[in-house]
Amino acid sequence: MAGTRELLQRMKSVQGTQQITRAMKLVSTAKLQKVRSVVEANKAYFKSIQETVRSIMVNSGFDVLQPYMSQKDEGKDAYLVITSDRGLAGGYNSNVCKLTERAITDRNEAVIISIGHKGRDYFLRRGYTVAKEYESVDEVPEYGAVRRIGEELMKEYHEGVYRSIHVVYTSFVNTLTQEAKIMKLYPLSKEEFEGEVDDKAPLMNFEPSSEVVLEYVIKQYINAVLFGALGESAASEQGARMTAMDSATDNAQNIVDGLRLQYNRARQGHITQELTEIINGSNAIN
């Protein structure tokens, strides 16, 4: 059995780790509240863009979307994988990477576009082609950076570099549950914009034409989808890290309790031994 001094040192070490995990949980909680407010605000903007596209289709028909829905024969399938730069977040990173692997049927016909070092390292170790890498989201995604990513992806799609673009991200359900999802970003699908248009909405004339307005709105739609995916992933990362650090803090407390019990037993054993020696010595003198 370990000595009392060794047990005390181990308890101090575990308690130090416990303080770190508790602090990391508090930091993740604060970041989660911040990013969730941004995600909720983006949902209203995204819904407004969808309504605008629907209203254009009501006036011009689904044919105006055809240039954005046609599947290209050239290029490869691109998978934009959103992960983090750091670990200590439970299965947050691994779930996204494994979902991407299951979605890829032929790795020779697929390329990875990573956001975050964890995703890049995962696919490089397994021999996948990582075509491009972007910096991960620290706390809250910036719309300017998201817009640049969206513009680059759309430009490369229309140039024939990619025949399709998918986004793999983590959807935030609650602090205990995060779900990895994959969504087709390009080409667009008709189902995304089907639905009823508000009857009370006024009829609109689009200048110079509905096609020109649609081209602009589609760019905003793609950027809103990316921004939402990054926001959901950022919230999921903080939620997963908060849960992981809470579990680590509880485990550390259990270890400390076990070590304290061993320490008390060892200390009691030493006291009993000393008392026995004193009694035996007293009896020997008498």
The overall average pLDDT, rounded, is 81
Provide the low-confidence segments as ranges. Answer: none
Alpha carbon gap, first and last residue: 35 Å
The CATH topology of the largest domain, please? Pyruvate Kinase, Chain: A, domain 1
Structural class: alpha/beta
From the spread of the alpha carbons, the general shape counts as elongated
The total count of helices amounts to 6
Give the name of the CATH superfamily of the largest domain: ATP synthase, F1 complex, gamma subunit
The radius of gyration computed from the alpha-carbon positions, rounded to a whole number of angstroms, is 29 Å
Which short descriptors sum up this protein?
286 residues; alpha/beta; Pyruvate Kinase, Chain: A, domain 1; 5-stranded mixed β-sheet; 6 helices; 13% strand; elongated
Walkthrough of the structure:
A five-stranded mixed sheet has the order 3-2-1-4-5, with helices on both faces. It starts with a helix and ends with a helix. It is 61% helix and 13% strand. With 286 residues, it is an alpha/beta fold. The protein folds into two domains: 4-22 and 247-280, ATP synthase, gamma subunit, helix hairpin domain (Helix Hairpins), CATH 1.10.287; 29-243, 3-Layer(aba) Sandwich (Pyruvate Kinase, Chain: A, domain 1). It contains six helices and five strands; from the N terminus they run H-H-E-H-E-H-E-H-E-E-H. The protein has helices at 4-60, 66-69, 92-103, 117-125, 143-158, 210-285, and strands spanning 76-82, 110-115, 130-134, 162-172, 178-186. A hairpin with a 5-residue loop joins strand 4 and strand 5 (178-186). The model has no long low-confidence stretch (mean pLDDT 81).
